[in-house]
Amino acid sequence: MKTYDKLIxxxxxxxxxxxxxxxxxxxxxxxxxxxxxxxREKAPELPEVTELDVVRHYTxxxxxxxxxxxxxxxxxxxxxxxxxxxxxxVSAMPQFAALHPLQDASTVQGALELYxxxxxxxxxxxxxxxxxxNPYAGAxxxxxxxxxxxxxxxxxxxxxxxxxxxxxxxxGTNPASAMVAGLEVVEVKSKPNGSIDVEDLxxxxxxxxxxxxxxxPNTVGMFETEILEIAxxxxxxxxxxxxxGANLNPLLGKVRPGDMGFDxxxxxxxxxxxxxxxxxxxxxxxxxxxxxxxxxxxxxxxxKNEKGxxxxxxxxxxxxxxxxxxxxxxxxxxAYAYILSLGKENIRNVGxxxxxxxxxxxxxxxxxxLLPIDGVCKHEFVFDGLKDKSTGVTTLNVAKRLLDYGFHAxxxxxxxxxxxxxxxxxxxxxxxxxxxxxxxVLHKIxxxxxxxxxxxxxxxxxxxxxxxxxxxxxxxxxxxxxxLKESVEG
Amino acid sequence: xxxxIEGLRxxxxxxxxxxxxxxxxxxxxxxxxxxxxDIVYVDMPEVGDEVSQGEEFGAxxxxxxxxxxxxxxxxxxxxxxxxxxxxxxxVNKDAFSAWIMKVxxxxxxxxxxxxxxxxxEKLCEE
Lengths: 490, 126
Description:
Chain A is of the alpha/beta class.
């Protein structure tokens, strides 16, 4: 394929344009009404291009993209499952897509019903009482959930509960969300198998603890078998349990966080419920709570009256609004379409299939890759790099080499439990043939590491852009066209 | 194989300490820089700050991860290595010459709790 690496600014030719504006029929000079201090002195340097230039430019750029629609994407803890096209079809229906958020409730009953039904479906799936769908993404859901936690304690006048316990294997967003919510982070250690060390947890539980944040299965893909004991201890100490839904996929329709004792959770619709993920977002991070926390959920809520009509409600105990209107509605439509297409029976197959796929890859590759935590995993697992450390080939090299073979790299160097972490999550949507191809390639790379290590260290060899200068990118980023021009012209 | 230097003291959180009189020079070990990968930022304390043994005094950011720096000693920061502001990669080049801070020791007996070179080397092998 021909390399395309132009910026749209570089296509610009003075005077070239792809639009024709109508004549100004008002004959006013708007510029005169704007104070001189607010006017630009120079015209902005916008690209001057034709419509065809724009279409070719963005089509060529999109061809450089790698996504679930182009190839296998085994990114750990990200649940990059296929996004069924029916989701897109449904969310594009003009009856929904053309609505305005300020329309009177009587004119948008269908949209409100969808919101209401989706929150009920999520509540049933997770074993909690009620969900808000308003948060825009996972981390936003975490923040909202922690605000619920804080509001709950403060409503009881229990103002000294300022600490949130977070496992040292947690996703980085957990401690970050706790800090943003104005809470203090306390770390609890993990055992060598990656699960929470209950003995380390016990002394941390006092009357200053607001709650604990957990993923289950945890970051290394293992189910926290002591969850009932942990829930009992945290509740006895007066704290709440927060479930980070990043790893909900393997439990779907099988085990419910509410039944494990969690009081608050968020779900990433863009992971578990097949809505677009990553740069293709936007995301959505619904937050669910147990019965006693319902009142604290953010405004607005969608409720149903006795006549079966839906209305938008602002509760008085609520922690307030955390989004404009009701959140990312288009994303909710996709998730709802996914849930209804699977149905109650099929949704139970998601978790087992995701788990089977992960275990199949793990068992097939553990002869060449170091498996620090053995045993049956859930939807994902972690290798600690290649088994043969003598070659000097690192996890980064293996990840880059995978690109040469047409696969996206897995999550690397996370979790921090191991030096050469490589976190693989296949999801349930990949066929056995794809998994076999991936396994074959990783075996081949292990062989290359033994036979031609220097070549693997120089990977990627066939991609449009070769190995990047990561330090340079972090230290001296060039983020605008102006900065690029300056760096070239010196 | 990571380098370990005789005569320095080591914390199990992978910082080294070199003591001259009542001044302790602190940095991170070769093992630590190797595990972190290419370092892009060193968050250092300010001169005059008080640091305590076992407490965080800054952070190192690499292309892989951000990691807290744990002070192996207690006392007042008297100097920081300003060269690291522009060139954090010096830590990757030679972790034992790219020191991070100098501390005027408030309790020299704390040094006894730190590891000798041989014991630290053993820790890294585990």
